[in-house]
TrEMBL record:
EC numbers for this chain: 6.3.1.2
Domain GS beta-grasp: 3-81
Highest taxon of source: Bacteria
Reactions mediated catalytically: L-glutamate + NH4(+) + ATP = L-glutamine + ADP + phosphate + H(+)
Subunit record text: Homooctamer and homotetramer.
UniProtKB keywords: ATP-binding, Ligase, Nucleotide-binding
Source lineage: Bacteria, Bacillati, Actinomycetota, Actinomycetes, Kitasatosporales
Function of the protein: Catalyzes the ATP-dependent biosynthesis of glutamine from glutamate and ammonia.
InterPro entries named in the record: Gln_syn_GlnII, Gln_synt_N, Gln_synt_N_sf, Gln_synth/guanido_kin_cat_dom, Gln_synth_cat_dom, Gln_synth_gly_rich_site, Gln_synth_N_conserv_site, Glutamine_Synthetase
Record-annotated GS catalytic domain positions: 88-335
One Pfam family recorded for the sequence: Gln-synt_N
Native species: Streptomyces rectiviolaceus
Name this polypeptide is given: Glutamine synthetase
SMART domains, per the entry: Gln-synt_C (SM01230)
């Protein structure tokens, strides 16, 4: 007998990478081997030396096919087994090891927008819906668009065993959020990439597409972000490390080093309006949804907990944002 393995990888599309996948039929009991693909079709190679290697790094049950079938997230390698230049996971493996004793964990809030053709789901043909106000966490057919898809996606994430921790309708019609975590850096990132793949794949069956475009509708409509909640063991036990982490993110070139790696088109979204801080300013504050980094109110009350980096775009690479936060904050906390 056989089972199906869906090999999933992150491609080289600029400026925002896309997910790709293909199916391998496996003999029952066989181990998942490295596999190959045509890198010239994914912006990961030139035509004359186009072979790239898929190395399985994370496996979970395939909730779409069911049975013994699996989803297999892969790193992309060159044929000499070095990480391909588009492989941002390899660097996180090293950094996670270096700071493992600080026990960093992340919860990422993934916002996204459904589209039907060229319109966000719920936008009337040739016009706009009622202005924002009633849609966030709304209920009812006048406010909610795509809940059947969202419920199916949630069910699929749970069946796959992902650490999804919640969902909610967002501020713009057709815009939604799910959260993954809290989990260790590699875990949260691998699982977020799989949850994204499941989002596209689930929506496909409803003839709807999903996008991580950080500003899918220009003008007075909320963008889509990926608020990244972060703590270390010390931050979960005391308040001084919370402040140290917030301060470290504001030092020298750090604000720009982070923001320029927080997803393409970030200056379109971090305008200072729509619950954001301007992309070229750094500030942190308690309960402040206009800050770059928010300390949740209960964290101040309890004098321990976590911080929320509100800057990352919906299209951020989780391997990159978790690496940068661990690098900046854990280095400061080490001192
Ligand atoms: P918001 O109020 O900003 O919408 P959400 O409830 O959507 O917040 O998301 C908060 C995220 O923070 C969740 O994924 C949650 O699991 C995560 N989280 C909670 N505690 C911690 C912690 N100590 N460290 C890191 N992440 C955490
Ligand atoms: Mn072929
Ligand atoms: Mn949220
Ligand atoms: Mn949100
Ligand atoms: Mn948030």
């Amino acid at each position: 007998m056989t089972f199906k393995a869906e090999y999933i990888w992150i491609d080289g599309t600029e400026p925002t990478a896309k997910l790709r996948s293909k199916t391998k039929i496996m003999a029952d009991g066989a181990e998942l081997p490295n596999w190959g693909f045509d890198g010239s079709s994914t912006n990961q190679a030139k035509g004359h030396a186009s072979d790239r290697v898929l190395k399985p790094v994370f496996t979970c049950p395939d909730p779409i096919r069911g049975g013994d079938d699996v989803l297999v997230l892969c790193e992309v390698l060159n044929t000499d087994m070095t990480p391909h230049e588009t492989n941002t996971r390899a660097a996180l493996v090293e950094l996670e090891e270096r700071f493992a004793s600080q026990e960093p964990i992340f919860g990422i809030e993934q916002e996204y927008t459904f589209f039907e053709g060229d319109r966000p789901l719920g936008f009337p043909v040739g016009g706009f819906p009622a202005a924002q106000g009633g849609y966030y966490c709304g209920v009812g057919a006048d406010e909610i668009f795509g809940r059947d898809v969202v419920e199916a996606h949630l069910e699929n994430c749970l069946k796959a065993g992902l650490g999804i921790s919640g969902i909610n309708a967002e501020v713009m019609p057709g815009q939604w959020e799910f959260q993954v975590g809290p989990l260790a850096p590699l875990e949260v990132s691998d699982q977020l990439w799989i949850a994204r793949w499941l989002l596209y794949r689930t929506a496909e069956d409803f003839k709807v597409s999903a996008t991580l475009d950080p500003k899918p509708v220009k003008g007075d409509w909320n963008g889509a972000g990926a608020h990244t909640n972060f703590s270390t063991k010390a931050m979960r036990e005391g308040y001084a490390p919370i402040i140290t982490a917030c301060e470290s993110l504001g030092e020298g070139s750090k604000p720009l080093d982070h923001v320029k790696n927080y997803g393409a088109g970030i200056d379109d979204r971090l305008t200072g309006l729509h619950e954001t801080a301007p992309w070229d300013e750094y500030k942190y504050g308690v309960s402040d949804r206009g800050a770059s980094v928010r300390i949740p109110w209960q964290v101040e009350v309890e004098q321990k907990g976590y911080i929320e980096d509100r800057r990352p775009n919906a299209n951020v690479d989780p391997y990159v944002v978790t690496r940068l936060l661990v690098d900046t904050c854990c280095t400061a906390l080490e001192k």
